[in-house]
Amino acid sequence: MKLFFHDAQSRHRPTQYLVHGKIVEPLERPERPAVMRQSLEGCGLVAAAPESAGLEPILAVHAGHYVDFLASAYDEFRSLPNAGPEVLPNVHPYGTASVGLEPRPEPRTKGILGRTGWYIGDLSCAMMADTFDAALHSADSAVAAARAVMTGEPAAYALCRPPGHHAYADRASGFCFLNNAAIAAQELRKRFERVAILDFDTHHGDGTQAIFYHRDDVFFASTHTDPSNYYPHYFGYADERGAGAGRGCNLNLPLAPGSGDDVYADAVERLADAVSAFGAQALVISAGWDAHRDDPLSRLTVTTAVYETLGVLLAGLALPSVIVQEGGYSLAAVAEAAPAFVTAFRAGHRVA
């Protein structure tokens, strides 16, 4: 199995993250991919740098005016009087939360402060000089993995960093700027008529859900910590089933805080059954290791052992598969969880 990662993805090194009312050092650290790469190469994956895919695959998912903002935001923000070291919003537009959030038009405000609040959804997405370039290379890794699968590889791993599943078509949130899983799924649609995304990160992939909420060609299935008192708070509830043509093509299985291995594995098995019932011809796995009990953001009690179980379960779908890296913030936990999953997945994965 090929492992795609570009060194430029580690150049995104923000210093500010607001959590529980305090500015702290970001948990989404640049050391994460190095630790995972070493552990994944240790179980047989072969690392390769992705080629640049350009903007076409990104613009197939994201609004052009949003991508333009990401490209120019840092330089514009730094030109403000007394500007801080990184781009962060200090104002947000008021609006009614919508499950199937459609991409918004370009904002009427043209100043960098107003546009920052429009395009950056929370205070976990500080942008510095190399952020956009890192996000582009992260998306390149997802595209390269999808194209490898489209040309005959049974599976490929995109070691995406920054991660992506909280990024909307026109908004950054939750450490995410470009939605790598959505970009990979859209790329797979060039060959496969029906694609599924299965997300087992401890946080709901609200951006991914929103991008495909009205579509019937991409099925989104997620298990995650109950969002009623957990990020992303506003989405990820069980009654969110898709809308319009996409009705029935969205499945959320929220888990109560404290849930352990058996409950977590049972939820993923239910998601896998739904993927099969949908008739998916290819699979994107949004793989987050942050449900692990040792992760600083986890409210679940799952152990490393469950990721081996998940690998067996998802290998059993026998689908061409792109594994896209999402969360996981304990370096010790990701060094165990990622290879446990991949080893089991590779051992059992046979494309039909």
TrEMBL record:
InterPro entries in alphabetical order: HDACs (IPR000286), His_deacetylse_dom (IPR023801), His_deacetylse_dom_sf (IPR037138), Ureohydrolase_dom_sf (IPR023696)
Cofactor requirements of the protein: Zn(2+)
Pfam family, one: Hist_deacetyl
Domain Histone deacetylase: 28-344
Keywords: Hydrolase, Metal-binding, Zinc
Protein name: Acetoin utilization deacetylase AcuC
Family: Belongs to the histone deacetylase family.
Coiled-coil portions: none
